[in-house]
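To illustrate the input format used throughout this study, we show a single complete record. The first block contains the structure-token representation of the backbone; no residue identities are included at this stage. The design step must infer an amino acid for every position from geometry alone.
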């Protein structure tokens, strides 16, 4: 059994300048102010529409990212709309095969350290699940049958595409202190990255 930390991988090639220019070009149609487009005008324009709550303009651009998290977190992610999702399937993935290292991969629960007794109970339980999963496969069970015993802690990869407005909404909700700790863990990683890459679109969202 492997235990890993959550993470993400950008699928989109983030070109901040192109993204901002496209949003500005679309948004200025509303005011017929295309003549004001100039070098550096996009940032000022977009800050203005965000401040006025005119965020529908942000829907003209999107981001695609692959999130590596546990199944429990992925169940929360897919509740967000409008968005598109493609997720690793426990129905078709046979984790006893060589390409998966013949083992299950679990996501480390961020609220426990390895020395904690709670972590030791969790780890022992996950190891037993792995053993039982492999036994079921050896007995002829299909992956779609054996998956019934797989836990929320199982690693999954989910590709998420959201327009910028929905992404901002997602990050506002999922980085708040009210969010589930593991959901918040990966959302904060993503927000921190996006604040560096495209600050104009995400600088107003606090990284609590």
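Output of the design step:
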């Amino acid at each position: 059994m492997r235990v890993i930390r959550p993470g993400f991988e950008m699928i989109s090639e983030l070109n901040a300048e192109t993204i901002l220019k496209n949003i500005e070009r679309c948004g200025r149609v509303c005011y017929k102010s295309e003549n004001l487009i100039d070098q550096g005008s996009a940032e000022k324009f977009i800050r203005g529409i965000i401040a006025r709550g005119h965020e529908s303009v942000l829907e003209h651009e999107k981001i695609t990212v692959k999130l590596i998290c546990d199944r429990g977190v992925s169940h929360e992610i897919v509740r967000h709309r409008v968005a598109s999702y493609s997720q690793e399937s426990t129905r078709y993935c046979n984790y006893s095969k060589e390409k998966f290292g013949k083992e299950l991969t679990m996501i480390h629960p961020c609220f426990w350290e390895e020395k904690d007794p709670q972590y030791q109970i969790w780890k022992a339980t996950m190891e037993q699940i792995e053993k039982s999963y492999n036994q079921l496969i050896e007995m002829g069970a299909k992956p779609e049958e054996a998956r019934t015993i797989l836990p929320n802690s199982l690693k999954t990869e989910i590709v998420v595409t959201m327009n910028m407005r929905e992404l901002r909404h997602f990050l506002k909700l999922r980085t708040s202190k009210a969010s589930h700790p593991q959901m918040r863990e990966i959302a904060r990683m993503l927000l921190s990255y996006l604040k560096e890459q495209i600050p104009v679109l995400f600088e107003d969202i606090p990284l609590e």
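Structural context for interpreting the output: The first strand starts at residue 2 and ends at 4. Strands lie at 2-4, 7-10, 62-70, 84-87, 105-107, 155-163.
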